[in-house]
Amino acid sequence: MTRLDDDRFSAALLDLGLVPGAAQSPDDVLSRVAELADAALGHTPALSVTVVRDDGTPATAAASARVAADLDVVQYRLGSGPCLEAATRSRVVVVEDTGRPDQWPELSEQAAAQDRRSIVSTPFPTARPVVGGLNLYLSRALAGDAPARERATVFARHAVVPVAGALAHALTARHAEDLQTALRSRAVIDQAKGILMERFRLTADQAFDALARVSNQTNTKVRDVAVQLVDTGEFPPV
């Protein structure tokens, strides 16, 4: 380990603190983190982000290389692996040498076949609203090299912060957009109900039932039926 290696590693950690996780997409943030991983650790690590949905199913939200996404899928299929262990149990998991399979032999075999000799999976900070973790698939084994293992785990612990921040920001933005869409839908439905209530002397519940009936008959969303009524005034007899 040279002084130049130390300097590159320190510089990469400092640069991680400048990655604007809340201002970029998860893909853009992961791409930048992958560049810094290469600078800090060498050998162009492949990175992926595992998220666990509300129903408990895992998915890969972003990946810097196809091999990372493919190895994630192996673990999802098996229902076990470092990415799932880290995400669901909130602990750092290290596979030091996939060439000497131990706990996850099938995953290790497939990782080694794709020149991924070690794996580091780090959970998101527990305060984040997203359950998941960051996975590093390295092309060098960490077994027997304590400094290299330390560097990989320290880097992962730092890198997971902007990645988790980007996902949390994206989730918040999506929820805000969904809320705005729901409010717009409710407004137009209320307008349509008012038209029906006046035209056919219906109660509010009866007006909504009429919209729902046409929706079912035409295989159209209630909102779209309401928009059609508000825009054209056309509606079948109640």
From TrEMBL:
Family annotation (PROSITE patterns): ANTAR
Record GO terms (molecular function): kinase activity; RNA binding
Protein name as catalogued: GAF and ANTAR domain-containing protein
Gene3D superfamilies: 3.30.450.40, Winged helix-like DNA-binding domain superfamily/Winged helix DNA-binding domain (1.10.10.10)
Species per Swiss-Prot/TrEMBL record: Geodermatophilus normandii
Domain (ANTAR) ranges: 169-230
Kinase keyword on record: yes
A matching Pfam family: GAF_2
Keywords associated with the record: Kinase, Transcription, Transcription regulation, Transferase
